[in-house]
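Predict structure. Chain length: 266.
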Amino acid sequence: MDHQVTVQQPIIRFVDDEPREMNDEVAIEYPLTVVVDGEEFATMVCTPTYIEELVIGFLASEGLIRSSDEILSLTLDEPRGFAYVELKYKQSVSKDFHSKRFIGSCCGKSRQFYLQNDARTARTVLSRNTITPDQCFSLVNQMQNSSRDFQVTGGVHNAALCTSEGMVIFRTDIGRHNALDKIFGYMIQNRISPADKVIVFSGRISSEVLLKVAKMGVGIILSKSAPTSLALELAKDLEITAIGFVRNSSMNVYTHPQRLVTYSVR
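Prediction complete.
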């Protein structure tokens, strides 16, 4: 399969009430079914790039694996849209387990997770990584400048794995969760330490996004968009620094500002 992000689509564009025939670029939407140990586990729609990373990151996010050593085989049938995975340690892939709400308590703090597997895989982040405001602006600009596919389609989400000094990798997908899973998969495949890493993200910081960052073990997330209230509750509890609305020369630091090295109370 040709790993494209966009395809050409003939359109009629109206400008000042004048119709013009032209081609436009639209984002590809690709269905991918993940089969684990012979059992259909999930079907997602995604951008058909870095599919192996996506599958590995997705399995880690769902709590089925912790390292690439736990995957005996991963076979892609890209024309048909299937990924076949054999795991070293067989376990339940019951949809009930991965859809049941779980409310628990840990270390005296109340934690509310949407799914049981979140409770198993989301951990308090102990990273002591720090960042400056200028580095925040620089990283978001680097991600934005790398997003040619967003610039021509407006239909994809972008995510980047960074150090405070610059981008390590950049991934794009029509699904914001998929973009993060591709980064997670890259980290697992390449045994990348999360200790000094930062996630830069184009979309809203929702609770699901925040939980994925926690599962990666990354202590800082930057976004040009807004957070949600539950995401911030989780960020406080999981000790993640959430910074939103990183635009031009302003940003909002919502949680754990101690990682921002110039921070001082006024």
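Summary: Helices lie at 51-61, 116-121, 133-145, 148-153, 176-189, 207-216, 229-238.
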